[in-house]
Specification:
Elements lengths: L2 H42 L2 H29 L1 H4 L2 H35 L6 H30 L4 E4 L2 E4 L2 H5 L4 H29 L4 H36 L1 H8 L10 E8 L4 E8 L2 H7 L21 H29 L7 H9 L2 H18 L2 E3 L3 E2 H4 L6 H32 L39
Antiparallel strand pairs: 1-2, 3-4, 5-6
């Protein structure tokens, strides 16, 4: 095992998974919101809901495609950089990923075609059902991924035979109690991502004094959903913390930057962990609060990192700061959602332009919270790729050279940078056009069994130009 090849492989996987998670976390929440919009349109008949649905459907399509492409590319590295892990865990993880393909992708791809082509070809109730099926597909995708990752965090329901992990109880793997706190936590994070992106877009249009009716709907619904879901998310975050405390005490100690056993334990608010001295510099802490958070007790004993051999300890700096950034983002979003929803109820939010600016600038916060949450979970799990069973260093392809790892890292970074630049630019153009714009308008002759019919003359029109099938 080459240490440089291991470092480059870990950097590559961190880069690709961080990039990929941006798009599913956005589309999961957005698919659910599209379902709500279509249901409201059918119930009320209000045209603004149809306008918003068509607008966000285009953005969903772009983000969904980017998520699929980045996910496929990301999967290659299991064979190139981590073939020992793929061989040992393939009988479990391969099956779980296949479940994702056969359930989630089948629903998403099949019914997404109805959303694109079927508005005028199917009954309204079936179009609503198709929208809900796409939302269910994105949810199932998140579920199988979380089952997969949760098995790596807390492996259960397996036996070891001939040097590989063999499933011996699928009910334990799928219904692992860890899944049922981590999956809702991830799902709520995705819903909040969609909510704040929608609210930020509404705030942007109000600041620009455009699309007044649609902007108010986006702002009211986005902030309202955030105001309700963030407290629920904080509760599930606490449950996730309980599982880490019980199942991964070294990770919990790293998150807390607790080096030595303490009874009762203080809560370190901020510090600079120093692994060389096994202490914290510039520490600010609150007495007793650490025991209350860890064990719901005022006098419990909480373990420190020195209880574990150095080779079994995770890095401290990343999970310590990543966790605090995640919580900080959540608290800022909570304040914006509650205050903004209050002003919405009073019909005064449009007068508070400073708040509109804050809501508009808040759109990166849910993405940052999701990324730092994953950094906390994945870096805190080290040095294990399957916790307590398979070390990360032993999971790497044994004959991988630093040169090969560096080349693949550069190639992956180049591909993902191109995908990201293209996708963000295109979504930005859609947002600039607004709910009334037609950057893409399928011609009437477009049919699902002839995909190239979408490429008819006049399909793509520049902002402000005449759309396909329209007369000047």
């Amino acid at each position: 095992m080459d240490a440089m090849a291991l470092l480059l492989s870990r950097l590559q996987f961190a880069f690709t998974i961080s990039f990929h998670i941006i798009f599913p976390s956005f589309t999961i929440g957005l698919a659910a919101w599209l379902t709500v919009l279509e249901a409201l349109r059918l119930k009320t008949g209000r045209p603004a809901y149809r306008v918003l649905f068509d607008f966000w459907l285009k953005i969903f399509g772009v983000a969904f495609g980017l998520g699929v492409v980045s996910g496929i590319v990301m999967g290659f590295q299991f064979g190139t950089n981590w073939n020992v892990f793929a061989r040992m865990a393939g009988s479990i993880q391969g099956v779980l990923l296949s479940y994702e393909t056969f359930t989630a992708f089948a629903l998403e791809a099949g019914f997404f075609g109805v959303l694109i082509f079927g508005r005028s070809r199917v009954p309204p109730w079936f179009y609503l059902l198709s929208t809900a099926m796409v939302a269910l597909g994105t949810t199932l995708s998140a579920f199988w991924i979380m089952v997969n990752n949760s098995w790596m965090q807390a492996p259960v329901g397996y036996a070891v035979g001939n040097g590989v992990f063999v499933p011996d109880d699928w009910t334990k793997i799928i219904f692992n109690p860890v899944v049922w706190v981590r999956f809702p936590h991830m799902l709520l994070a995705a819903y909040l991502t969609g909510a704040f992106c929608v609210a930020a877009t509404g705030a942007w249009y109000l600041l620009r004094r455009e699309y007044h009716a649609e902007a108010h709907i986006m702002l009211r619904m986005g902030l309202g959903l955030g105001a309700v879901l963030i407290p629920v998310q904080l509760f599930f975050g606490h449950l996730v913390g309980d599982y880490v405390h019980d199942y991964q005490p070294a990770k919990f100690a790293a998150i807390e930057a607790r080096w030595h056993d303490k009874q009762p334990a203080s809560e370190v608010l901020i510090a600079i962990p120093n692994e060389a001295t096994e202490s914290n510099d510039y520490e600010i802490k609150i007495p007793v609060l650490g025991s209350l958070i860890g064990s719901m007790s005022f006098h419990s004993k909480e373990v420190g990192l020195t209880d574990f051999p150095p080779r079994d300890r995770p890095p401290v700096l990343i999970p310590f700061f990543a966790f605090r950034i995640m919580v900080g983002c959540g608290l800022i979003m909570l304040a914006l959602a509650w205050f903004g929803s209050y002003l919405n109820l009073k019909n005064r939010i449009e007068r508070k332009r400073w708040l509109l600016w804050l809501v508009f600038l808040s759109f990166p916060l849910p993405f940052v919270a999701i990324l730092t949450g994953w950094f906390t979970a994945e870096v805190g799990r080290q040095p294990w790729v399957v916790y307590g069973v398979l070390r990360t260093a032993n999971a790497m392809t044994p004959f991988l050279t630093p040169r090969a790892a560096a080349i693949s890292l550069v190639v992956f970074c180049t591909i993902y940078t191109f995908i990201f630049a293209f996708g963000i630019f295109y979504i930005y153009r859609l947002l600039r056009l607004g709910p009334a714009g037609h950057l893409i308008k399928p011609p009437i002759a477009a049919v699902p069994n002839r995909p190239m019919s979408l490429a008819a003359d006049g399909l793509i029109s520049a902002p402000g130009s005449v759309g396909a099938g329209e007369k000047p």
